Amino acid sequence: MKREQLLEAVRGQITKHRYEHTLGVVETAIRLAEKYGADKEKAETAAILHDYCKFWPEDKMRNIIENTPHIPKDLLEYDTELWHAHVGAEVVRRDLGIEDEEILDAIRYHTSGRENMTLLEKVVCLADYIEPGRQFPGVDELRTAAEEDLDRALAKGLGGTITFLVNREKRIYPLTVLARNSLVKPKM
Ligand code: DGI
Ligand code: FE
Ligand code: FE
Ligand code: FE
């Protein structure tokens, strides 16, 4: 599918506000891909589709998690906000025919992250944090870091999410901790 068709497909799945967020992630992911040497076309496709299942009902997502062998079942024990990423990767493969595993992984891990993320995964995950429409405490610091050091910026972003979750007495999905640790070099 072409860019315009993919945009149309995702527009039918999400709110107007979320669609605008998606356009911001697309623009930012392309820019970061260019800056850090990731595949721009793959970054664009992954960014367009990254929140495809964001507004799917919980029971529909739960069903897909339970019935798709390789989706980690422990997601069901963590915040439902994590689900749309792993489910989204399966759904865009099934419904839109996206077969590129690098693109699917970038969608799959855009929320949780994972240990040793690929360049493309980092670009999409960071673009999701810093797209122009995003507003949260510390976002400008993240935007500055993103211009200097991809790993450091993403570690900061994930660190902020971990702090946010801890402050709300929520659980942290282990992949998020592994992602951050693998982005922060050990000090000897
Ligand atoms: O879908 P978006 O709102 O664009 O952003 P996202 O897919 O990065 O979702 C982020 C939300 O997920 C954020 O509000 C925090 C929540 N969340 C809940 N548990 C976890 C988590 N995020 C991470 N990275 N790890 C968790 O364990
Ligand atoms: Fe998301
Ligand atoms: Fe994110
Ligand atoms: Fe997003």
Q: Which terms summarize this structure?
A:
65% helix; mainly alpha; binds fe (iii) ion; 0% strand; Hypothetical protein af1432; globular; 10 helices; 188 residues
SSE inventory with pairings:
Elements (H helix, E strand, L loop, with lengths): L2 H9 L4 H21 L3 H10 L8 H10 L15 H14 L4 H8 L10 H12 L8 H10 L1 H18 L6 H10 L5
The site of one fe (iii) ion has 5 residues, from helix 7.
Q: Assign the CATH superfamily.
A: Hypothetical protein af1432
* Helical coverage, percent range: 55-70%
- Provide the list of bound ligands, each named once: 2'-deoxyguanosine-5'-diphosphate, fe (iii) ion
Structural class: mainly alpha
Beta-strand residue fraction = under 5%
Roughly how many Å apart are the termini? 49 Å
**Nearest-angstrom radius of gyration?**
16 Å
| Major beta-sheet overview | none
- Identify low-pLDDT runs: none
What is the CATH fold-level name?
Hypothetical protein af1432
Task: Return the CATH class.
Answer: Mainly Alpha
Q: What is the count of DSSP helices, taking H or I runs of 4+ residues?
A: 10
What's the mean pLDDT score? 97
Query: What sort of overall outline do the alpha carbons produce when their principal axes are compared?
Result: globular
Number of domains: 1
